[in-house]
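Incident review: delayed structure delivery

Summary: a single-chain prediction request sat in the queue longer than the usual turnaround. Root cause was a stuck worker, restarted by the on-call engineer. No data loss occurred. The affected request and its eventual output are reproduced below so the record is complete for anyone auditing the incident later.

Affected input:
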Amino acid sequence: MGIHPDLSSMPAEPLVAPMVGFAKSQKKGMANERHSHQCAQLYHVISGSAAVDTECGTYFVPPERALWIPPGLQHNGRYLSDTEIRFLYISPEIFPGLPDKPQVLHVTTLLRELILEFMSYPREEALEGPAARVAGVIVDQLKMLPATPLQLPMPSDRKLRALCQTIARCPADIQALADAASGAALSVRSFERKIKAETGMNYRTWCRQVKLFRALELLSMGSAVSDVADKLGYEGPSAFVATFRKAFGVTPGRYFSETSTD
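Output delivered after worker restart:
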């Protein structure tokens, strides 16, 4: 089952059908400009990995996950390795009931096969017939999928955002709570209250999420568990694996093997 040649070019908006496909390959290190769409977008990574920056925070998309991007949300993608992507552009007026916030979804075997089937049709056939029926089933599946914890929320406050961006760039060197609060010109209590209000996490939990997020990026690029543990300042590989398992329910090796086997 191949990708129809029609789907090699970016679709114009407004869409010619309720759902339109687009297939693209990106090289490691590529990034696109911040932009938005009138329609919703499903950003399905087949192989490789990407990080998508939005005003809501950054989302990590490993293989066989997909990022749901609602209409009008400013975003840009960064490619952490050579990446194969399948995009679905979906009219929110035609398909109500889908999420109104970005979220990363685990692509099931069924959904993956439905997307590949839809991608085999030319765009002109997406209005009716088999392609349109496949599109309807895809939407039904999207409404059923749970979100996965692959978001790094960023505060909107200028000082807090600058602090968090510094930590995100170098998560192996995280400031102590008191030092972070002082750098933001806040008391410890006010700092904790403010960062919790803006990110939904306390400072310690947010910093742990940064490390896990960076770990996923490094692992997706082929780094060894021991190297990731050392680079991110864990006491050793076992401490890192325990933290990873607590967050995601499986070990790093199992996590990435399950991206292709469910």
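Verification: DSSP finds nine helices and ten strands in the chain.
Action items: add queue-age alerting; document worker restart procedure.
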